[in-house]
Structures are given as C-alpha cells and as structure tokens.
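CORE FACILITY INTAKE
Project code: CF-77B
Contact: R.S. (postdoc)
Sample description: multi-component assembly, two entities in total
Requested service: structural model of the whole complex
Turnaround: standard
Below are the sequence entries exactly as provided by the requester. Do not edit them.
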Amino acid sequence: MITRMSSLFLRTLREDPADAEVPSHKLLVRAGYVRRIAPGIYSWLPLGYRVLRNVERVVREEMDAIGAQEVHFPALLPKEPYEATGRWTEYGDSLFRLRDRKKADYLLGPTHEELFTLMVKGEYSSYKDYPVILYQIQNKYRDEERPRAGILRGREFVMKDAYSFDLDDEGLKRSYELHREAYVRIFDRLGLEYHVVSAVSGAMGGSASEEFLAPAEVGEDTYVRCLESGYAANVEAVTTPAPPARPVEGLPAAEVHNTPDTPTIQSLVDFLNAAELGRVFTAADTLKNVMVKTRQPGAEEWELLGVGVPGDREVDFKRLEASLAPLEVALLEEADFAANPWLVKGYIGPKALIGRGVRYLVDPRVVPGTAWVTGADQLDHHVVDLVCGRDFTPDGTIEAAEVREGDPSPDGAGPLVMARGIEIGHIFQLGRKYADAMQLDALGPDSKPVRITMGSYGIGVSRAVAAIAEQRHDELGLVWPREIAPADVHVVVAGKDDAVRSGAEGIAAELDAAGVRVLLDDRTVSPGVKFADAELIGVPTILVVGRGLAKGVVEVKDRVTGERAEVAADEVVAHLVSLCRS
Amino acid sequence: MITRMSSLFLRTLREDPADAEVPSHKLLVRAGYVRRIAPGIYSWLPLGYRVLRNVERVVREEMDAIGAQEVHFPALLPKEPYEATGRWTEYGDSLFRLRDRKKADYLLGPTHEELFTLMVKGEYSSYKDYPVILYQIQNKYRDEERPRAGILRGREFVMKDAYSFDLDDEGLKRSYELHREAYVRIFDRLGLEYHVVSAVSGAMGGSASEEFLAPAEVGEDTYVRCLESGYAANVEAVTTPAPPARPVEGLPAAEVHNTPDTPTIQSLVDFLNAAELGRVFTAADTLKNVMVKTRQPGAEEWELLGVGVPGDREVDFKRLEASLAPLEVALLEEADFAANPWLVKGYIGPKALIGRGVRYLVDPRVVPGTAWVTGADQLDHHVVDLVCGRDFTPDGTIEAAEVREGDPSPDGAGPLVMARGIEIGHIFQLGRKYADAMQLDALGPDSKPVRITMGSYGIGVSRAVAAIAEQRHDELGLVWPREIAPADVHVVVAGKDDAVRSGAEGIAAELDAAGVRVLLDDRTVSPGVKFADAELIGVPTILVVGRGLAKGVVEVKDRVTGERAEVAADEVVAHLVSLCRS
C-alpha cells in the first residue's frame, strides 16, 4: 500500500495544542492522528485510525490464539441487567444514562459483565458446554469527572473486554493464566514497557486481580515495586507487614495528660517533648484516629467507622476506599459531629469509639503490645502508653495508611520504590458475583446445577495508543514500533527534479509490490518541512531519496536510533524488505 | 482457519423466535448469528460478527479503491454542530439525546454531516487541498418509532457514511459518480440483487440522489420500475407526466349544484350520475381538495395549504411530505377548522382557498383546460365544469397523489410496476447546505473564498447482512455468498468411527493450510442434527465425510443449488480450493 502525502487528509501542526499537557496528547494532535470533538471525546484521522486498527489487530490475534471467541454487543443498553447487579446506581455520575422515546431507561455501556453473563445463560445449559471465553472490541463510555490527556482518559474509548466462564475455581485460574499470557504477548508486540502489578478489584468485586501498568510520568496509577524481588503492586493493593505482637507485661500504665492546644500531631509531639516525660516522642508513637462513615451501596443510613493509623502517616483515601469496597465511604460532616457530641475533634481516642460500639479498625502496625499516644476523648487531653490488647482491642485491621518509598516490601525482600504508570490492561478473577446476580448455572453431570465462576479481562485499546506514544517519542515527534506504525517506510522525495521524483516513485512501487506499507511524501513543499513531518509522524524507517540518487545512493534513517546509512539505490528495496520482516 | 463446532459459541434453534416475522430475522436468530438485547438493539454472536466484518471489509476495500480515506468519529456528540444546522430539533424523537454530569447536551450520532464538515474546515484551507473523500464505518443511533425485523431496522446499527468535498458542481458530480460505481461493485460482491432508483433527499436537503434498493417483500421502501426502459424510482420521487394544456374555449360554464349528503367522492359521483346530467361521471372527473398545514422547521406558526388531486386517487402523505421538504406538514385538527369556519369539510373548493390567499397546489394532471367537479365551498354543494385556467388558477403543482401500478412511466416508455425493497445504500448530492451552515470555504487561486460543495453516501452495513439473508435463503436456512460467508466449507463429520473422524480432520487441516476457511462439525451429535445445522447456517459448500470414506469418496454439496457430488477423497482438497478461488 502506498499512501501519498499529497492527497492524505493530514495537516501537521507546528505548535502544541493549547489544551494539551502531556507529550502523547501534544504529539498525537500535532502529528494529525486525533482531533478533539468535546471533553474526553476524540476523532481519529486517517493515520491515527490506522494505528488504532493495528492495535486492535494485535489484540484480536492474541485473543483468538487462546481460543477466545469474538462477539459484539451494543453500546446502548437497557437498564435492567445493570439494576440487577446494582451497578446502575453504583456507577454514580460516571454512567451516561438516557431515555428513549418511550421513556425507557438506557445507558451507554461502561463494561459488559452483565450482558455477557446473560448471553452465556441464554445459549449454554450443560457442564459440557464449558469453559468458554468470549470477547469484544468495542466503544465504551464513562462520564469521567476529569477527562484528561487526550485519548489517555477519554469518555468514549475503545476497549477489548473479555470474559471467561468456568465450572470451578481451577478452571477460572486456567482461564486467568491464559489471559495473563496473552496480555504479555500483546503488550510485548505493542512495544510497551509494562509491569504486572497486584491490584484490588474495587467496584468490580471479586478476588485475584492484576493490572498491566505502562510506566509513565503522566500515569494516573501510583504503584510500588521491590527491585530485589520483582514484587509490584498497585498502591491500593500493598499490604503492610505487621510486626510480631509483644507481651503487655511490664509496660507502663496508661496515663491521661493535660495537653492544651494540641489538635495536630506535631503540636502534640512538641508538647510532650517539652514536658520532659523522660522519653522522646515522635509522630510514629502517636495513634491518629480518623473518623469516616460507611454504608452499603444504595442504603440510606451511614454508620460511623474509626480508623487508627500511626501519626506519622496520612490516611490514603483511595486505599481506604479499596479496603472497604464495596461499601461507600465518606468523611464526616459538621452535622455528624453535631449529632455525636462525644466525638471530640482532635482528641478522639479508641476508648470512646469502642465503648460506644463504633467499629474501630487499625493499621496492621498496631499489634497487641504496642503502646500509643492517642486522644483521651476530651478537649486538650491525650493518653500516653495506651497499649493495644491491654487497654483497647480494635475490631480488626485495615490498609488505609499511605504507602511510602522505602517501606518494606510485603514479601520481605527489600524496600519499595514508587512509580507512576498508565493502566493498559486489567485481569480479574471475578468469581461468582455476576453469575449469582444472573443465576448462571450449568447442569452438572449429576444433574445438579453448578454455579459458573467468571473472569473479566480488559485492555484499553485506544489508551494503549496513547501509552505507546507516551513511552515512545522524542523531542522531534512520535516513534512507533513497526507492528502498529501507520506505515513501514516513510519515503521522502527530497528534490524537485524528475529523476529524484521518478526514482522515489519507482522504489515506492517496488516496496509496495513486496508488501511493504509506504508513506510517500510526494508533496511540493521543501525538504525541511518533509523531514520535520517525517520525524513528527514517527514511521520507524525513513528513506530519503535526494540528490545522492544521481550517484546511485539513498539514505535510510532509523527513526528509533537516529542512525543514518547510505545505501545503494539498487539495493535499498531488498534492504528495506528484510528490515521490515525482521 | 478451522472453527470447531464442538467449542463454537453457537446454539441453533429449531423454533422461530416469537417476535420474528420476516425470514431474515427468523433465520439469523435461529442460526445463532444475532440475539436481541432490547427493541431494535442486537448483539452479534461469533458467526454473525464474522459476516458483519466480511461486509465491512468489502465496503472498506471498495471505498479505499476510489481514494476515500477512512477516519473515525465518536458516536457521542455535542449538541452544538447539530444545532447549527437545525437537525438537533429536526430529528425530533428519532434522536437519542442525553446530558453529561455537567448538564451539557449530547446526542448519539444518527449521521455525521456536521462533524465531517467541521473536520475538513479544521484541516483544509486552500483550493489545492480539494477534492477529498472521507468515510467511516461506525455505529449509528436512531430512536425509531417502530424498530422491526431484527437488524433490518435497528436503533443501533452499523453504517458506512462517506462525504465528498469538492470545489464545484462538476467535481461533486465526479465524486458522486465514483461512489455510484463503488456501490455497484460493493453490492455485486455482496451478492445482492438491487435496483438503483431515483430518490428525493427528504430531510437531508440537496438535489440529486439515488437509492440502492434490494428487492424484498419485507422491504419498507415502495418503488416503481418501468420494465421497458429500466427507469426506477422511489415512490416519493416519481413524477407525474402532465397531459398537454387544452383550450378553454367552448367548454361549458361552471355550474353549482345542490348535492345533498355527498361528503365522499363515491357519494358525489353516484348522486351526479343519478341526476342524469347527460354525462357519466367517474371519480377521476372530480377534484378532491385536501387541507394540510405547513411550517418552517422550528417555526411556531403553521400556514394552511390546499392540495388538489383527482378524486380517484388518495393523497400519499409520504409523497406530499417529500415534495414539501424541508417544510413540516401536518393534517388539520378540529381546532384549525374551528378557526377557519369558511372551510366547509367535504365541500372545499379552489375558489375559497384562492380567494382567501391560501396556497393551493394541484396534481400535475390538473392542467389548464381541464374541467372538474369539485367543492363549492358550501354545505351540500358542488360545482361542475370548474375549468382550470379559466375559473381558477392554482399556485403551482405538487407530487402528492398516490402512484399506482400501471401508471405511465415519466420517461414515456411504458407502464410502471410496483416493487418493495430494502434501502441498502443512498447517495446524495448535498450541495452547499452543510458548507453554508458551517461556512466551509477554500481559498481560491484568486485568493477569494470558494464555498465547498458536498456529497453524502451511506451504506447500511448491518442492514446489508439482513438484506442478503432476506434475498438468499430457502426453507432450510441461510445461503451466504462466499465473499461474506462465515466460512468457505462446512465439513460435516458424519460418523463416529476413528477413520471418518481423522479423515475429516485431515481434510480440514489441508484446506486450512491452503487458506480455505473451514467450519468443522466435530460434535458428538447425530448426522441428522449436523446436516440440519449445516443447511441452517448456510456456508456455501458443505463437505460430508462419512461411511463413503472407506471406499475413498466424500460428498460435496452446493448449498445454493442443492447439487451433491461424490468426489474422490484424495482429490477433494484440490477440488474445494479451486471452487473457493473461482
């Protein structure tokens, strides 16, 4: 295929678009791959659509290779299945909802667990039918609060979503492993650097789950890695190693101190150290009790929850939310404090909470035998040496404290380092949540129903384009891996005379005949403009046909390494063909 | 590619679905190609999605071949561009509208003229940029009042929409002709029988327009053909040959008759013939005046319009609407008659209308010199011998009367025959409607702006699947043309013994290696079930490997003709490969 720049619907931009902040967004717009239509809603221009379809092809090939079968659901969906699983309300404002002319409720599908479950239920009945893996590549819709970074976080985006259906947990693990391997092959072929990190499943429900994160400064996902062991996890999924419990015998008794005007940890520590109690206190010796409220999704009533974390750490609300999911969580409002006057802001302690029957969860570091400085439940008073397991017994532990660079890896192998990444894939062992909601059973060999167990597996197809652009660009432009580039060779006609032009045309025709995809810059603009556009567009190999042709040479430039080589004009086709096939 | 029925996500049905009335709908559901999700909203199962993608591929190849460039727009679109052209309101209830979390108005795109116009305006500026043809294959949304017949008239459907942008009318004609030729190639490759008929463009605006209609009893479009000349037209586009005007000299004077109790044409004719006026009257001698009201889209006020047609014909409201487009048309309500008491229902005549300044349009057959029996504008009175051009002069003519089988073809070549068809394609010369609305200009060679002229070209991609199924099926099932069939050869393993099974597997593997797409029925069900499913699924060639294999023969069945042939097992691969390539 030869694509001629003289007629290609493409106008590159020299300036970055005003609304773009991240490199992939700037470059994809400047190079004429995408255009903005509305916040988080983009059009694909010819070169961009080619890249998108190339990514789709890679995804499709690897999904087909694990025996997954492609189907296609509508994007416009009736409310009822999503009501059955509660997601009609759980999605909140993120769901695009609409009504048809008969006032029936519809939504634009954010993900299709419900529909796939119902489809399998409609077709399959016997245990002999299973396992089955179905997938689709389709437009998805989420009304993001802050769509950003072009196609990196859009409101309409292309996703591959796959679902596995198995008779038992072992089958689910096999299906999950098949996807994990397919995803590795897909992201390798897409030329992405990525880490597979443990993840919590959030609102999706279910148990085991991993994310494929492409490291990038602009990524929205913070994750940690242990360089020693290779451990990697989403911050929400990091578990805190608990120290061993200690004996309480011999520990000093708890003592309430008048600590006037110490509503913050720092003011408290300063006060205590100034009081010369014979010890030096640090923030890590204090136990900070944060009050939130929780409720079941859709429920009216909130319940109080106390969360105790060491005072040198903040509560990470996303970790807190993930730990409590599917419960909804909110901070207390003034009205809540007014309704519970026994909650003394700045001086809340475990004893009042436990005494009043309020659920109280603590950081895993708060083990029996640890002594804490904490609130004494009255204004300007704290208690010192309040010992866990002796003076108070929490209702359990919770992962809510922030994770920090240098924290120990849960596997004990070394310290954690922090990284940022773009979520490009996510695999879940959903279990029976949707099968339960939709009553998806198979008739077993003993004629008894077997509840099906499911997995769900997503790839952000359009987001992958942005992630690749984010990882593979330089100051001049994009640098596509060949597998998904809009062309194999960008032929620049660098000269106006007929010999150069016809020489370039001849080479392009030969490349085309050999199955090489050619982008031919046959425009009447200056060579400088052509070179700049070639760098910007990012086809992996640039062939410059110019004055050297008279001496029988052309120039081949590797867009990745920047290396230039003079090649004999009569050998360049063979050279490029072998390059493209390697 | 070998697809094994033993693991294919497919369950055929023996019974027609309860909600299906037309053959394509019944068979596509029974054969496991599509499943209903909501009214007019369907999912594609694996075999169905293959067929859909095959149709897409054919469309894409032929669009690319005329130099059209593929882009991809979102389906979720902001209101503003559609407001600029008035279509936000014009579409009425057919438009799916929704609001995002910030209460901004959006719609699900029914067609994308506005967006394409804006995109070209955003990228192009010089006359040197033109012409350009852009297209996309994309989900479209229309909230049909009566979605029906499965995927034949859906509310979410796949459409190829293309748009041409030219500097002048000649360019537009060339682009239009390119599309016409591409459409002929596409529908030929899809194995569709079709007629290209003149069409009016309705709400789309514009001038020349043709529809590609696939003849089918279940089609919603009525059209006419003249077998003698090949003339074909949508009923809305049929023009009525006007008889020559006649001299008014010597015609009897108009005379008002008391015609009590004759509100209908038949009662009037009966009364006049009973009155023995020396002539025999027929309904064709009467002039029926039908009152409607019209207004500009979006306007508040309605205006009265009188439409006069020969009394032996009904007013065809769709023809009337098409003739008056883009005006809105409605029948009069009681309130309208009450507000205009001079309108005497059943006795309305031209004179009162013309006298009151109400616009009055007549059938083209009402030429000067024709004498009519018509209303005398008072209860129980008609006027006889009211002569057009002498006693009344209409404001013009209108194509509003029904078209009937046997009416003369507008080209004078012979009588018209009526047919029903499915609209599978539509090509329009839009002209400058959208370029005007969006101010799409090119800077001409003289530095003056040139307003761009556009064409718009649609193919119902998912509907084409239904149209093919509608035209190509028999009592046993579907009969796909090879180009879009889900497989080339359906291999039926008709026997349980290992020799038969391994023989079939071997042939399937050889076919696969030769690039033939194989659907292999390796299930453990009876041969009868397999044969029935093979007929139902409709792969063009069925290969039966059974007991004959012991004698070295297998059976090849042509699904189209039903012909069966015994072929030597060691020759069948070569035989089938050549069959599939022919």
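Facility notes:
- Chain A touches chain B through 51 residues (CB under 8 Å).
- Confidence is low (pLDDT under 50) at residues 201-206 of chain A.
Invoice: internal transfer
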